Amino acid sequence: MTATATSLLAPRTHEYEFGGPLGALFVSITVPCTMYYFVFGCNEQLGCALTLPVTDWDGFAAAARDTIVTGFTDKAAWFIYYGWYAYTVFAWLILPGKWVPGLPLRTGGQLQYKINALPTAFYALGVVAAIIYNYGPRAMATLYVHWPGLLSAALTNAVLQAIYVYVASFRPNKLLALGGNSGNVIYDWFIGRELNPRIGLFDIKTFNELRPGLILWILLDISCLCYQYVRHGFVSDSMIVVVLCHTWYVLDSLVNEPIIFSQMDITTDGFGFMLSVGDLAWVPFTYSLQARYLAFEPVHLGFLGILGVVVVQLVGYYIFRVANNEKNEFRKGNNPKSMYQCADETFVT
User: Fold this and answer.
1) Running DSSP on this structure, what letter comes out for residue 176?
2) I need a labelling partner for 99 at 20 to 30 A (CA). Which of 59, 64, 134, 169 fits?
3) Distance CA 232, CA 220 (A)
4) Does residue 321 lie in a domain region?
5) In a domain, 344, yes or no
6) Which residues of the chain register pLDDT less than 70?
């Protein structure tokens, strides 16, 4: 490879983010620990008080020990999780979808991406509905029961994928991320060395962005709802609001799938542990914390409470969606709110 080609495909990174290698190592350790803490620090036996470690050290230690051991010995949970991941890959492969181009790469080309995350979710939700209809809510509550094992399986998947894409990035002619080629193994593994790691047409980064973790978030929410019904004999209004708001957010993201191709995660960042653990583990297992808490500690909001939540949700959604759409248009070269417009090659205000 010539010096010119090297400077284009694999420029050396000279500036660190996230505190450099030590910061990358710190985040790589504390993120999984935080997710496990949410499991053994917020449960039916010990509650969810912030003072939990201080008030009940023995119970906390026992719950932590049991959670971690269970997480890596629960064969059913691992089978469920990797069966789920295999389904999302299979759905990407066989379900019809439009191929759309991403933004131009710095090498001048454009990658093609398959759009079918929404039908992937619809088929999954259809299966969930069939399970609940035929076997009752107890069957779907299985995800809640096997939570530690599912989390451990997801974390393992995130680590293995980060290792794979890091090793694969050393193959010839790989386009590396501008910020992920420092030469430090820990930092580059965390940030992501290759910009668009792929297996054939299968783009690992964009696939993980919307499918296995984001849709799993909703399935975990539904499982919590089913568990609340099985345990208490009813579903609280707060649980319904949480599940509907989360589902709305996820389905909106899937409907607007092409927008992610202009976002920084896709255009600039490499795919390393930072994104793999976020997509595969952090999103589904921390964003569903509200539903997990409500599963064993129902909260009744009442009409005014529901109204307040819905108003905040609508305002937040409006800001989020309008801002994202504007950013997407700008990154594609359109700027609808520009002070200048080009007409007949003359700029006018």
Assistant:
1) B
2) 169
3) 18
4) no
5) no
6) 1-6, 50-55, 328, 330-333, 335-349
Note whether 280 and 214 are within 8 A (CB).
no
Token pair for 306 = 């529901």
- The pLDDT, as a whole number, for residue 159 is 97
The CA distances from residue 283 to 3, 70, 86, 135, 276, in Å, are 40, 21, 19, 28, 10
Which run of H or of E encompasses 343?
strand 341-343
Does residue 294 lie in a domain region?
yes
Identify the residue whose tokens are 């449960």.
Answer: 43
Task: Give the H or E element holding residue 341.
Answer: strand 341-343
Q: How far is Cα 195 from Cα 175, in angstroms, rounded to an integer?
A: 6
Contact 222, 128 (CB under 8 A): yes
Q: Where are the alpha helices (DSSP H) in the chain?
A: 3-9, 20-40, 52-55, 57-73, 75-94, 117-135, 137-140, 142-145, 147-168, 185-191, 204-210, 212-232, 237-255, 264-267, 273-277, 283-286, 289-296, 302-331
For residues 192 and 181, give the distance between their C-alpha atoms in angstroms, rounded to a whole number.
8
How many domains are there within the chain? 1
Nearest to 63 by CA among 73, 71, 81: 71
Which residue matches tokens 């997407």? 328
Residue of 157, 158, 141, 236 lying closest to 192 (CA atoms): 158
How confident is the model over 266-296, as pLDDT tens digits? 999 999 999 999 999 999 999 999 999 999 9
333: left (phi over 0), alpha (psi -120 to 50) or beta: left
Give the number of other CB atoms < 10 A from CB of residue 280. 26
- Please tell me whether residue 346 adopts helix, strand or coil conformation: strand
Looking at the DSSP bridge assignments, the partners of residue 70 are none
Q: Is residue 228 part of a domain?
A: yes
Reduced 3-state DSSP string for 190-216: HHCCECCCEECCEEHHHHHHHCHHHHH
